Amino acid sequence: MASALLLFLTLPFVFSVDPKCPEGFHYFKRAPTAWNNYTKEWCLGVIDGKEDCGNRDFARSICINHNATISMPENKHEFEFVTKIPGAKKTKINHAIDGQMSPRCVNKYMKHHYWFRKETGECNLKKGLFLFDDINTDPSFILDNSEGSPNHDDAHRVNETTSLVKYISTCLTIMGGQIQTEFCFGQQMNEYNSKAADIRTVVCGRPPL
Known about the structure:
Keywords: Signal. The chain is an alpha+beta fold. The protein has five helices and ten strands. The strands form two sheets. Strands 1, 2, 3, 4, 5, 8, 9 and 10 form an eight-stranded mixed beta sheet that branches. Strands 6-7 form a two-stranded antiparallel ribbon.
């Protein structure tokens, strides 16, 4: 009887402990909705990749190595947490986050230079312009506060006899505390041009332990 009473008294303490996140991650409670796959709690971390996280495949691999997925802040509270963490060389807040423009929309931009905030079809900023890896984060906050998409494009020609090669910034980032797009292939855009921003960190997300 005494042992049963002791177990009863300890149960509330066992189940009242907040879920924990792995080292380098911060715990957040969320309002579960259909847009975030009814996620009640989530761990976010800003991981230093030591190299060029502007390369989207490399940024993804950094998160995977931490048993996480490339992610993003879902609300103002999470955004303020993420933007307080310095990026490369402790001088700029430059982070890769989830969100890459769909190939279909990239093709539309190449042909027509759409302004996607006004596009009413599948490439509307709030509808299908971006594809996301993280199914547990609602991207609405990021899309509502983005600086426009894409933010910039570029082009080069090897010589006068070759075709003009165009490319646009299609990956979402947090640059200096602002949400915008950058080139997905990182700092070294190609052998002729390396204007892309220096991004050494990536926002990763995962469930609590």
